[in-house]
Amino acid sequence: MAECLSEISNTAGPVDGKEELLHECESIWKQMEECQSKLMLLGTETLVPSDAKLSLLMLRWKALTGDFRQWQARDPELISTNPDVLLETGKEELQKVKNDLEMVLSTVQTKNKQLKEDLKREQQWYEEQKQMLETLSKMEEEANTQDEHRSTKRELNELKNKILKLKTFKKELLNALGEFLDEHFPLPERSENIKKTRSSAKPVVELITLQEILEMLINTLMATPHEPYITINESFWPPYIELLLRYGTVLRHPEDPNRMRLQAFHK
Fold first, then answer.
1. Rounded distance, CA 121 to CA 134, Å?
2. Are 59 and 42 in contact (CB under 8 A)?
3. Cα dist. 161→29, 151, 153 in Å?
């Protein structure tokens, strides 16, 4: 209150306006001191110890309720009726409001600037993360493609190795079969073959081995499984044909006895 009065006294124009305002302020101050004295007297009443706190709170509540009703029913009073004092006071209040608004505006502008900088950083971070995600997606796609190529290449190599092993095993198996057949099922001696051909007065025919007959049957069965029969000619030694038929290795054609096929053991 004293600071406000000193500011008004420095800014106000006429001297009588200052004195009038000081007089009114002193009157209001005296009224406040009287009210405070009455409140102090109310607070010094003797109370029973058992309900001292409750009674004190009730007294305060009644006092505050009375003050509230009084201020609610009271019309606002002017500090002074002097227009010069009111003008200077209004200017001062408007200046305070202006300063407060400028401070709020400065704070809001600073906050907006900070928010813009934060938004810019967030957008930059978003773009960086987006580019990083795109780069990682491309790397993952390339890695998957390379893995597929590697997997396909590895499978092809494994298949080639298996085929090579099968060919090697087939060759070894045919060699072993040829040695076994040459040892246990040899062709007849050439002299006997010539003697028979002379007695029959027919040209000499070169007989094929049992291994060659079996290879022909196997190759025909694998190459043309829908037509696995081969034709028996004079180069087939009859005891070989009888041996294969007797042990169920080959089967004759149901309509043509000169054709035979290998038994489908693989089914």
1. 20
2. yes
3. 112, 15, 12
Helical spans, DSSP H, in the chain: 2-11, 15-43, 52-73, 83-184, 190-200, 210-223, 238-246
Name residues of the chain where pLDDT drops below 50.
Answer: 1-14, 47, 191, 194
Residue 230 corresponds to which tokens in the numbers above?
Answer: 């081969």
Decide: helix, strand or coil at residue 51: helix
The H or E element containing residue 231 is strand 230-231
Neighbours of 193 (CB within 10 A): 16
Beta bridge partners of 230: 260
pLDDT in tens, 144-160: 877 777 778 888 888 88
pLDDT for position 179: 85
Q: How many angstroms separate the CA atoms of 87 and 26, rounded? A: 21
pLDDT given for residue 80 in this prediction: 63
- The C-alpha atoms of residue 215 and residue 203 are separated, in whole angstroms, by 26
Beta-bridge mates of residue 261: 251
